[in-house]
């Protein structure tokens, strides 16, 4: 997986951009929220990335913040929401704005985003509610407030497919000050298999 790119911005034509990294031109797609923060062509930049592998293509997506990338990844898990719709959502509303919509069940604001109809908005509210209501998540940025080993373990368990509420239960009462991330993950998984 490609976690980030650090190079020179060569071209930008929304939603596509090209970044030169050591003489290799990476083509990416990015939401408008990222485009607004891009420097002029020829300037250095760093973008967080997500690689999506399909049967017919490998698509690379770029983001200026971790909150945007995390939301993009969560949106891809919603049935009926693909990369194109996820980019549209991030182009139409900020990560924290989307989080507020989900927590407040604001269907009207979601349906104002181009490409989001009522049924898709309802599905987003239902399927994203559990992910947005994670304890330890900063309300204003949508980013995890948990740092260090516990934050790494939390992220790794989410990546393994566990739901946020399950991860919180799995890590509850573990000695997060003493254990490193790998040990926390191991202990959390032991709890699941023992239960």
Category from helices, strands and their pairing: alpha+beta
Instruction: Please state the overall shape, judged from the principal axes of the Cα atoms.
Output: globular
Query: Which range does the strand content fall in?
Result: 15-25%
Q: Give me the side-by-side strand order of the main sheet.
A: 3-2-1-4-5
**Average pLDDT score:** 85
**CATH superfamily heading of the largest domain:** 5' to 3' exonuclease, C-terminal subdomain
Helix content: 40-55%
According to CATH, what is the topology of the largest domain?
A: DNA polymerase, domain 1
Our measurement of the CA-to-CA distance between the termini, rounded to an integer number of angstroms, reads 32 Å
CATH architecture of the largest domain, please? Orthogonal Bundle
Q: Could you tell me the radius of gyration in angstroms? A: 18 Å
CATH class of the largest domain: Mainly Alpha
> Residue ranges: pLDDT <50 for 5 or more in a row?
134-147
Number of domains: 3
SSE pattern: EEEHEEHHHHHHHH
Topology, number of strands? 5
- Main sheet properties: 5 strands, antiparallel
Number of helices: 9
Give a quick set of tags describing it.
9 helices, globular, alpha+beta, single chain, OB fold (Dihydrolipoamide Acetyltransferase, E2P), 5-stranded antiparallel β-sheet, Helicase, Ruva Protein, domain 3, 195 residues
Topology:
Elements: E1 4-13, E2 16-21, E3 24-29, H1 32-35, E4 44-53, E5 58-63, H2 66-76, H3 83-92, H4 95-104, H5 107-111, H6 118-132, H7 148-159, H8 164-171, H9 181-194
Antiparallel strand pairs: 1-2, 1-4, 2-3, 4-5
Helix pairs in contact: 2-3, 4-6, 7-8, 7-9
């Amino acid at each position: 997986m490609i976690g980030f790119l650090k190079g020179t911005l060569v071209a930008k034509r929304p939603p596509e951009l090209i970044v030169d990294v050591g003489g290799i031109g990476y083509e990416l797609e990015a939401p408008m929220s990222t485009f607004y923060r891009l420097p002029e062509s020829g300037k250095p930049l760093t973008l967080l990335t997500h690689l999506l592998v399909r049967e017919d293509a490998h698509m690379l997506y770029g983001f200026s913040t971790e909150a945007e990338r995390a939301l993009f990844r969560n949106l891809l898990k919603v049935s009926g929401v693909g990369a194109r719709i996820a980019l549209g959502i991030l182009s139409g509303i900020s990560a924290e704005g989307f989080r507020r919509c989900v927590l407040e069940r604001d269907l009207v604001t979601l349906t104002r985003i181009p490409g989001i109809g009522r049924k898709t908005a309802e599905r987003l509210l239902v399927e994203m509610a559990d992910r947005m209501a994670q304890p330890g998540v900063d309300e204003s940025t949508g980013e995890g407030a948990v740092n260090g080993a516990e934050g790494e373990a939390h992220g790794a368990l989410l990546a393994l497919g566990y739901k946020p509420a399950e991860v919180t239960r799995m890590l509850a009462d573990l000695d997060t000050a003493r254990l490193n991330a790998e040990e926390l993950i191991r202990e959390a998984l032991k709890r699941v298999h023992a239960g």
